[in-house]
Amino acid sequence: MNSKSYTPIPMVSGPVSAHPRTLAAMNHDFGSADIESDFLPFYQKVSRKYAQLARTENDVVLLTGEGMLGLWGGLKSCLSAGDRVLALGTGVFGDGIGEMAASFGCEVKALSFPYNTTLNRYFQEIEAAIKEFKPKMITAVHCETPSGTLNPIAEIGEMKKHFGVPLFYVDAVSSWGGVELKADEWGVDILLGGSQKCFSAPPSMTLVAVSNIAWEIMQQVGYQGYDSLLPWRDIYRDGRCPYTAYWHGVAALGAAADVILEEGMEACFARHKQVAAMCREGLNRLGVGLFPDEQAVQSPTVTAACIPAGYDFKSWQAALRKHGLVTSGSFGPMLDKVFRLGHMGTQADPELMRQALNVIQTVLER
Ligand SMILES: Cc1ncc(COP(=O)(O)O)c(C=O)c1O
């Protein structure tokens, strides 16, 4: 898959090595999306493929911009100052989303748990907080990329439905396309994705699945701003996107979805699990500890491991890079303690993982 990667053994947690078909799809002199009648039907077709990948009937908006654009847009479009948000955090992004909502005046109750754990440990506390705080929105992160963990979304979705919380916002930036999602069954109203993770497309396309209730609430909130999602609701009726559409980016996303759908969703998710297991067994064999604790659910898309004694991230990365392996570091409290192997999309590849583990072994045996 990685015929022309920037690095010989790319194992970063994103942007992952782009799939050649996504690059080929972009390599075309598309016309103006405002003028050509082909664009909107194409956009709609691509958008429905992403709905299929998340098992949702909801609209999926394809925005030009990084994952953070969708994260901000999803919050600001649905919430006004004073609205209550229950922010569930087991990592940098979960806590960060709560801080984002607080920054424009929302009343945020942040349930912040240790970054090496997942929400399955805290269902009782979460339920009690929902009952007591009565939020308008619950926010959670499916895959906490910096921690290498996967939070249970179905159970939180059940609580959301049971207690009649209007909105459930889920960051699936590094899980959509690599892990099974059942957005409708789980009651997700705002589901967020990014092109550069499991989809193996170049960065700077964001996907946001929006429920009908979320659209209605956005209408009531009436947020106006570059990141507002509302202008995207009526693009088919209006016959155009609110801003200059990035046809190339949509084409890359179209190719990326085709790659997954042709492989088969089940097969694709199974491949991610298989390579994740191979990674963890390999690290274990080499005596490299994993960051998540034993009760945490580890993500099939990224592994967070402890940087071996005697190294900080810079020196560890330099040692690996000499043998062609590039990994990611981590953030916040994990800085210089944790390194990550991203095995999502093109990088969920057993041969690539075998090479990565060989390099780690070589460096450790020096
Ligand atoms: C879980 C998660 N959410 C959001 C983002 C933000 O995406 P972007 O860097 O494209 O803005 C990332 C990026 O790594 C992520 O891992």
User: How would you spell out the order of helices and strands?
Assistant: EHHEHEHEHEEEHEEEHHHHEHEEH
Number of helices: 12
- Could you name the CATH topology of the largest domain? Aspartate Aminotransferase, domain 2
Biggest β-sheet, characterized?
A: 7 strands, mixed
Structural class: alpha/beta
Overall structural domain count: 2
Low-confidence parts, pLDDT < 50 over ≥5 residues? none
Instruction: Write down how many β-strands occur, each being a DSSP E stretch of 2 or more residues.
Output: 13
The small molecules bound here are:
pyridoxal-5'-phosphate
- Rg from alpha-carbon coordinates: 20 Å
- CATH-wise, what's the superfamily of the largest domain? Type I PLP-dependent aspartate aminotransferase-like (Major domain)
Helical residue percent band:
25-40%
Query: Which shape, going by the Cα principal axes?
Result: globular
Mean pLDDT, nearest integer? Answer: 97
Strand order of the largest sheet: 2-10-9-8-5-3-4
CATH class of the largest domain equals Alpha Beta
> What proportion of the residues form beta strands (DSSP E)?
15-25%
Distance between the termini: 30 Å
Q: Please state the second-level CATH architecture of the largest domain.
A: 3-Layer(aba) Sandwich
Write the topology of this structure.
Layout: E1 9-10, H1 20-26, H2 39-54, E2 59-64, H3 67-78, E3 84-89, H4 92-103, E4 107-112, H5 123-133, E5 137-141, E6 143-144, E7 149-150, H6 154-162, E8 167-171, E9 190-194, E10 205-210, H7 212-221, H8 235-238, H9 247-263, H10 265-285, E11 302-306, H11 313-321, E12 325-326, E13 338-342, H12 350-365
Parallel strand pairs: 1-12, 3-4, 3-5, 5-8, 8-9
Antiparallel strand pairs: 2-10, 6-7, 9-10, 11-13
The structure holds pyridoxal-5'-phosphate (PLP).
